[in-house]
Amino acid sequence: MRNWWQAKDGERVILLPGRLTRWKGQLVFVRALARMKREGRLPPGVRAVIAGAMQGRNSYVNEIIRTIGENGLKELVVVSDHLTDMPAAYLAADIVVSASTDPEAFGRIPPEAAAMGRPVIATDHGGALETVRSGETGLLVTPGSATALAEALRDLLARSPAELAAMGAKGRGHIQANFTVERMCADTLEIYRALIERPRKS
Fold first, then answer.
1. Is the dihedral of CA 135, 177, 107, 87 positive or negative?
2. Do 20 and 101 form a contact (C-beta atoms < 8 A)?
3. Phi, psi at residue 61, to the nearest 5°?
4. Distances (CA, A) of 158 to 38, 47, 95
5. Among residues 197, 19, 11, which one has the least CA distance to residue 104?
6. pLDDT by residue (tens digit) across 93-118?
7. Which residues pair with 17 in a beta bridge?
8. pLDDT digit string, tens, across residues 145-199
9. CA–CA gap between residue 135 and residue 115 (Å, rounded)
10. Residue 76 in contact with residue 130, Cβ under 8 Å?
């Protein structure tokens, strides 16, 4: 997977997976990286990967590629096709980003990445408020803000591999404790039970 992304030995991979559609925040991600580069705060040895299905959105994909080129990021950012092996993709990454500009009811990327032991940067709305514990399992940032995302990326990239691994381990523990199928079923049945047992108004 890392070879496919052209990641060299020792490079840290930042992965933003998701459908290539505007509200998933790919352009916010590119602009955050561009800001870091302009300010001289983008460390060497980083590979950024945008991966997802185009689903016919050729004009938007071309806009992403054009923005990458305009900001001198061609050597840093790879736009990859739809991923068929997400567990391998998460394991091949060091940091996973979910930059959705609109809130998602649950959003699979943050909990999936955390379940694979990866620290997550996600936007501060929707399901990520429950699946990401900011400062513990990852970081939450202002939706649509390239500045906030750049700061979060700078923060995690400044941490040691051991620190990132510890954050990822906390994330995995959080998901295992709260977001398994068994937990979901038990909580749902508990709600049904409470409603059934609640006294009816005469």
1. positive
2. no
3. -60, -40
4. 17, 15, 12
5. 19
6. 999 999 999 999 999 999 999 999 99
7. 51
8. 999 999 999 999 999 999 999 999 999 999 999 999 999 999 999 999 999 998 8
9. 17
10. no
Q: Is 101:25 a contact under the CB 8 Å cutoff?
A: yes
At the top level of CATH, which class does the domain 12-197 belong to?
Answer: alpha beta
CB atoms under 10 Å from CB of 101, counted, come to 15
Tens of pLDDT, residue by residue over 37-95, are: 999 999 999 999 999 988 878 999 999 999 999 999 999 999 988 788 999 999 999 99
Strands (E), the chain: 12-17, 46-51, 77-80, 95-98, 120-123, 138-141
Given a contact cutoff of 8 angstroms between Cβ atoms, the answer to whether 5 and 47 are in contact is: yes
Mapping DSSP to helix (H, G, I), strand (E, B) and coil, where does residue 61 land? helix
The residue count of the chain comes to 202
The span from the CA of 156 to the CA of 165, in Å, is 11
Q: Tell me what pLDDT residue 202 has.
A: 58
27 CA to centre of own chain: 14
**What span, in angstroms and rounded, lies between the C-alpha atoms of 70 and 114?**
33
- Coil/strand/helix, residue 56: coil
